[in-house]
Amino acid sequence: MNRTALFVLATAVAGAPFAAAAQTPPEAGPPALAAAPPAEEPGPFTVSRDVDTSIHRDRGYRLFSDEGATAAVGVSALRELARAGVFSLAAGVGWLAESASQRGLAFDATLRVNTFQAHLVAALALHRSVVPYLRLSGGASYGEVELALDDGPAVDDDDWSGGARAGLGLRAQTQARKLRALPDAAPPIAVSVAVEGGFGWATPFRFAVRPAADEAARVTGEAPLPTAAVPLGALDRAQGYFRVGIGLHF
Amino acid sequence: MNRRLFLSLCFAGTAAACVPDSDGAVSPELGAREPIALGTQVAFVDGAAGAAFVLDPADPALRARRVTIGKNPVVAVRRNGTDELLVLSRGEKAAAGVEPEPPSLALVPADPAPASRRIPLGSRYGALAQSEDGRFVVAHFTSAKPESGDLLFNPNELAVVDLEAKPEPTVRTKPIRSFGGVPLGVVFSPRLALPDGPGRLAVVLSENYVTLVDVERPTELREITIPLTLVDDRRLLRPAQVLFDAPASGDPTIFVRAEGADDVYAIRLVPIPPAERVPGGQAFRPVPSQVAAGSRPSDMALFDGPDGVRLLVVAPGSSSATVLDPRTSRATAIPLDAPASRIIRFEATSPAETKSRPRALLVGTGTGARALSFVDLERLEEQRTRNVDTRAMGSPAGQILAFPSRAVAVVSHGEGGAAGLSIVDLANRTVSPIGAAPHRQLVVGAEADRLWLVPLHEPAIGQLDLTTGRPLGQIRLDAPVRTVVPLAPGKDGKRRVVVVHPTAGGHVTVLPADALDRAQARTAVGIFLTDLLDRGGDR
Asked: What chain B residue is nearest to A213 in terms of C-alpha separation?
């Protein structure tokens, strides 16, 4: 198995980064890492499962969360582009799915945001196991808001937002080992846990809600009446964030 | 203008018998977010949000304007003579995590240019009444129960607000004398010729007594309390209707009809000679008298007799109406073919004469009567039944909407109009039956030329031309209908009607009143959510 194939496989299973080891058939023996050959350098690829918490400044988020904070989960994949001494530079892409929902006085409010990002990560390997890094991200977010009104239809809208993030993080990484269960050609693998904090700026979402067309048609069996959208206002995307990621390096 | 002004008061307990004002005002039931027509616009009060939303149906975007009105609003009405919304709010008590807010009276103009105003009040009142010109507002309690959450309060305290005082509206607090009751309501008099100059009185109605307060000098002059029963009288009388005889010269008289009483109370305001006046006292004294008016009268109306004012009184248990001369207490029975419980006074021609004269329509709503009576009021005591003209109806009247200025009335028959409608032409004295589906509501706008019907079970409304009796069509809508608000013609000359659907968050459909066409309708769902995110998701 070459590195590209392993990259694809690891991305697919990034939700459970250690699944490869955990799902090894019993006859394959004890966990491979324990019995692996001596340490080596991992390859240039990193796949990470991320849990992101955003702390929003805009009070509008209180519609969806009393604390004004929302959580997201996602995956990211990086490839090391260059290395010079302790300094390394990696680039990659990622996806975050953010969701918050809360009961209002007369409706249920739900916000869903899918963010697609490109990452640039500069790391400084001052220590073999603990690596500080700087991450710059840019991308687009697709937000959907839905308000399910009591005794009435649900109204919704969606919008796109573009923006960037900058954050500093610290990654604790194991030594890379070759897995005995994998072919000899397979690269050595390391795992890491990263914590990161930073701030993001983005154009705000602007929502103007209306019911889905089929809702009215369901009542009357006719084409729905022309419907004016009700402007909900803007949802600012300037926010602090805190990220925890579990990565697989190979 | 007749020298007498007729005012009547319907209390919440008898709201089912109330006829909406001819301007289409509706009950201020805040929990249900009843809409209030403000000229060409419509206002909604969102009690939970402490905000009013003003919608201009001519705006293609149907964007509602949100105005903060104060927490816990309890009454919202159109300010008389204006296109302003008047909202009484109880405010918020201080509590853990709750920002306190004083009770207030908010004025929200339909026109967005002038800013809305909030006038702080001293107590968390539960009701308000306003003068006919909208200048004075009296805020009052209606119960001694601590509904507002205050530990201590005086339920007989009033706040008299002069909205046109310069430079700022004034609020004057007035505790009134009590004989154990609390105000049931307040009725304003027209401008009366009082001994020390023209003035206006607020008549505060309480069980077994009424109180007269000079609204222009509420704190300078003492109030006058007038018992309706003797000390040993155990009856419970609830004042239900007040009329004023306000002659340009001579003594004004206040007539009070009370539930539980067979008599009508006439309170003449007699001047006190200057030498006998006391500092801080009124310049008049009340001289009450009781006039027998049959058994449990249900409505009364004033009209001019040959030598002074007369009172026409009806009682549902009687097959005659009674004309009372308050000056002599003489009663004249006018036999009717059908018992009547309501009096609709109007001036119009009749089939027999082309001159417009004072007349009355007597209708028995809820009495089972299948006929109604037209009465010519001039020389009624002399002519008696010769002045009465009876018309049959297909079935008994359940509800009546009357528009004297247009000489038209609409009678709804049966429970929820199940037995149809009748249009009564007051001038031609015709009763035209109209087939109608069972309905939850009949609405007639300020123009009083069209009737809107909200059916019980269908998401639709129907329209009828009141002048011709011709149905103008119906339209299916996308959601069940709660109510209909016909509005005055907009700047573009178009008349619109706002249909309100029973959806939390505010759901309206705007239709051109002249063409019930789905293609020309526009709807908006969630108008109370307007700018929700910009205001911090605060609902």
From this structure: B478
